[in-house]
Write a structure and sequence with these properties.
Layout (H helix, E strand, L loop, with lengths): L1 H5 L7 H14 L11 H11 L20 H13 L7 H14 L6 H5 L4 H11 L1 H4 L8 H12 L16 H4 L5
Length: about 180
């Protein structure tokens, strides 16, 4: 994360800090493609938050294969944006919606999939970017389960696990009926 903050446009910005953390988590594993950002979106994000970047930071991301889950990613992305806060940059909300939707394809807790320190950081991020959605989590569900549930309900579907849920260690806890 230090490497990303070193090239930050404004390292004191909470949004820049968040993106530095999200990007650094994938970068450390050589998995920048897992952010799920299209080339123009990635370049615009870098320009907004990491204007002092060097050639060491890839201007292009490798493509990620998500065809099997395209509908899930697109509909969760759209749902998140309907709850986007007017207080954050609209393009940042777009980026974050993509990063979150793609993280839901991976088999772990959402906070780990995102490279955050814990559930509290996910709650902070979602509250900052998608506050009206957070307000709907009255049952205090785990975030990945909640997001998958809200996506299904918004489409008139029966709630079920996100694509990555079955591989998680707590799948039986979250979805005892599927176990």
């Amino acid at each position: 994360m230090t490497r990303w903050l070193a090239v930050a446009t404004d390292a004191a910005s909470p949004d820049t800090w968040l993106f530095a953390k999200l990007i650094a988590a994938r970068d450390a594993r050589g998995e920048l493609a897992l952010l799920g950002l299209a080339q123009p979106v990635w370049r615009a994000l870098l320009k907004r938050h990491f204007a002092h970047m060097s050639d060491a930071i890839p201007a292009r991301l490798p493509a990620i294969e998500t065809a099997e889950h395209t509908a899930f990613v697109q509909t969760l992305h759209a749902l998140l944006l309907t709850h986007a806060s007017a207080a954050v940059h609209a393009d940042d909300a777009q980026c974050l919606a993509s990063i979150i939707a793609h993280a839901c394809l991976r088999p772990d807790h959402l906070w780990r999939d995102l490279g955050l320190a814990g559930r509290e950081e996910v709650t902070w991020m979602l509250t900052r970017y998608f506050p009206t959605l957070v307000a709907l989590n009255v049952a205090n569900l785990r975030w990945k389960k909640f997001l998958a549930q809200q996506r299904a309900l918004s489409l008139g579907l029966q709630p079920g696990p996100a694509p990555g849920c079955p591989g998680c260690e707590d799948y039986g806890y979250c979805f005892p009926e599927h176990h």
